[in-house]
Amino acid sequence: MRRIRANAIAILTVAWILGTFYYLWQDNKPQSSPSSSASQTRGRGHGQKVVSGRLEIHRDDRTIPGVVHLCHQTEISSLQLLGGLDEKAYLAGKQLKPGDDPYRDHAFNLQESDRLGSERAIRDTRHYRCASLNYDADLPSTSIIITFHNEARSTLLRTIKSVLMRSPPSLIQEIILIDDFSSDPEDCQLLSQIPKVRCLRNGRREGLIRSRVRGANTASASILTFLDSHCEVNTDWLQPMIQRVKEDHTRVVSPIIDVISLDNFAYLAASADLRGGFDWSLHFKWEQIPIEQKMARSDPTQPIRTPVIAGGIFVMDKSWFNHLGQYDTHMDIWGGENFELSFRVWMCGGSLEILPCSRVGHVFRKRHPYDFPEGNALTYIKNTRRAAEVWMDEYKQYYYSARPSAQGKAFGSIADRLTLRRKLNCKPFRWYMENVYPELRVPEQEAVSSVLKQGGLCLETRGTEALGLAECRTIGISRPHSQRWELIEPLLRQQDLCLAISAFTAGSKVKMEPCNAKEPRQKWKPKGTALQHMVSGLCLDSQTPTGPPVITQCRPQMASQSWEPQIIT
Ligand code: LR7
Ligand code: MN
């Protein structure tokens, strides 16, 4: 009897567990037709690392026709969309010649892109719950800004057309194209024939950063939307982003960026569990949302906070963009501006998020299809160095250790950007590290043991707190701990005790106390051969060879302020 009851309980438990799993699975299942899914990664940009994530592959033939689906209220025909532009002639004007390498000019398969035509259906890749969300009826309109340099005609036209087809017309104030000095000026002229499209051509190559600023400066809507020139926007992509910015103008929002295959142009759903991150060399990467945040997400339509954005596709209030200093226009061509913008937004009072109910496809490439007048590596170093120097405070040392080749490379003047940072009263990078990106680990520093020598004497500890100078005892391993220091910026350590000032005024004694890297009294940095207390700006001074060390006004050359570290092994 007892066994039967135990069996029944076991069966019921298993059934309950299976039922729960089935329910959760149903909840996550995409709404539309069955399709193959495969474990892959989000596409990548140049040198970008990726983490594995789920990426569902959906072939075009299984999709709902995009135009019918999207234009249900307006039924805009292709002809009306393009106004005076003769699409066929435009596309035929530049075509691959037989025998040409289809990857040569654009680093994607041009033949496939051309074959697709200018409009095609793509699968609605959002979580099904997104479709039932409501947005304000009176959302403000936006200026779409697309900068391009020698973009293929078919990809650029598909970007523009997808915007016109898949956005409520009232939300599109205008589409501003900036032709960044492409070889053929005709593309710009021809595309200007499309209603709502304006095209400005640069008189010389400026790079995407200055081009976007030019576009933003001429925009007439109160909200800016940036897109790359090889995108396809998906169903209801715009409303969630404008809604979030309307509710709080300090939010800078981006969509989930789906992958358009550079080989066959299949539109692939990207994982909804990723956010933007980076390593200390300032390379962008997609990374999993931290597990605690993932567990706390009961609603898959909720925004995802992100430490950085990929950079190309985002929506931002125009006055907030201007207030925060637009972009650093001394950055050239490509790269780094996404970090600079992301740090600035977070540190100066805004926030960055990815909205899962907004999806935009992008052709991820493996190389740049265009040239960099100053070279790719130097340009990336210049741009990221500017970002590090202006925004990363003492953490820039990790950037330089991860990218030693950046040291000594020219990066121009950053005075204007430092003034901007002061004027906006932005928080320190430490705040960003603690509150926005605590998952970014600071590299372990190798502890170097040394004595701190002044003349023939060495700095030593006496008892638990006190310090003084004494004759150096230099016999290797047997050296007593009291003269052995570890310099791990900003701390000056002896095991668990650190050198601290007792007060912030000149003449205050120093003492030893338990280490705490956040304690302002314990922060030191080398200044020549002197040791400067970072907060008070005063220097460690022995005053007299026998007296207790104190902090005094820094005077370079003063023997009593000179502490030569001598490494001991
Ligand atoms: O000199 C140039 N002038 C330009 O107008 C160089 C480029 N461009 C245009 C170019 O035609 C394109 O429309 O600028 C746009 C971006 O250039 P891409 O497509 O070569 O860049 P990307 O997609 O490899 O790079 C990502 O990182 C860049 C860093 O500077 C920019 O922020 C891109 O906008 C950004 N793209 C995205 O965020 C899309 C998602 C990719 C990822 C990750
Ligand atoms: Mn791109």
UniProtKB/TrEMBL annotation:
The entry's keywords: Disulfide bond, Glycosyltransferase, Golgi apparatus, Lectin, Manganese, Membrane, Metal-binding, Signal-anchor, Transferase, Transmembrane, Transmembrane helix
Asked if Transferase is a keyword of the record, the answer is yes
**Which GO cellular component terms, listed alphabetically, does the Swiss-Prot or TrEMBL entry include?**
Golgi membrane
Q: What is the required cofactor set for this protein?
A: Mn(2+)
Q: Where is this region: Disordered?
A: 32-52
CDD domains, per this entry? Answer: pp-GalNAc-T
SUPFAM superfamilies from the UniProt entry = Nucleotide-diphospho-sugar transferases (SSF53448), Ricin B-like lectins (SSF50370)
Cellular localization per UniProt: Golgi apparatus membrane
Q: Family per UniProt?
A: Belongs to the glycosyltransferase 2 family. GalNAc-T subfamily.
Name of this protein: Polypeptide N-acetylgalactosaminyltransferase
